């Protein structure tokens, strides 16, 4: 599936090969603190959670007993790991969060929570970032929240394709992180501006950042 964008920036197409990325790496402390926040809130109803950037599926493992998790990623290696749980309720899509495809896959407001600890980190430009943020707000149900992390919001990387070799996988494709644009640091000032633009309430719980509808 080809990804389409509203901007003219250059985007790598990771769809046609089995790109490995975070499936066997340790969950980031940023995502861990988001999960702890959700566990601490002890939500009484079964929530529909959209996880942006599933990594090693840690969020699924921690939250699947009480909630329904849908995920997106650019890595087929991460999708393979997600499929290994054999859970028909854990649906994971190959989808670039800043692409038009996101809007096509998720067309209705149905999620109670969106987890994205690297909200702006991988954006190509401001226009596509704001388009993504608007799409996130549009798929949130009434009273829905976007949860991020202050440290993750300061992290900026770009992903590039790389051919790698090891004895387990021989020659294989990997995503390589390179330094991204420092304009992708999502400061609290910008978070306030985005909250005002989309009429969201912004709050903090230690390093966890919450945008509420
Ligand atoms: C640094 S890893 C973090 C994984 C996991 N969230 C964690 O914190 O441990 C970034 C994740 O975001 C995904 N990702 C990066 N850019 C993306 C994009 N434009 N659209 C969707 N997912 C993306 C990667 O595939 C990977 O799952």
Output the keywords.
7-stranded mixed β-sheet; single chain; 213 residues; alpha/beta; 3-stranded mixed β-sheet; 7 helices; globular; Rossmann fold
Walk me through this protein's architecture.
With 213 residues, the chain is α/β, with parallel strands linked by helices. It has a single domain (19-212), classed as Vaccinia Virus protein VP39 (Rossmann fold, 3-Layer(aba) Sandwich), CATH 3.40.50. 29% of the residues lie in helices and 29% in strands. The chain has helices spanning 29-41, 58-63, 76-83, 100-105, 126-139, 150-153, 188-197, and strands at residues 19-20, 48-52, 68-73, 91-94, 111-115, 140-149, 157-166, 170-179, 201-205, 208-212. It has a 7-stranded mixed β-sheet with strand order 4-3-2-5-6-10-9, sandwiched between helices. A hairpin with a 2-residue loop joins strand 9 (201-205) and strand 10. It is globular, with a radius of gyration of 16 Å. It starts with 18 loop residues before the first strand and ends with a strand. The mean pLDDT is 96. Bound molecules: S-adenosylmethionine (SAM).
Number of strands: 10
How does the overall form come out from the CA principal axes? Answer: globular
**Sheet/helix structural class:** alpha/beta
SS summary, helix count: 7
Strand order in the largest sheet: 4-3-2-5-6-10-9
Number of domains: 1
Instruction: From the alpha carbons, calculate the radius of gyration and give it in angstroms.
Output: 16 Å
Would you give the CATH topology? Rossmann fold
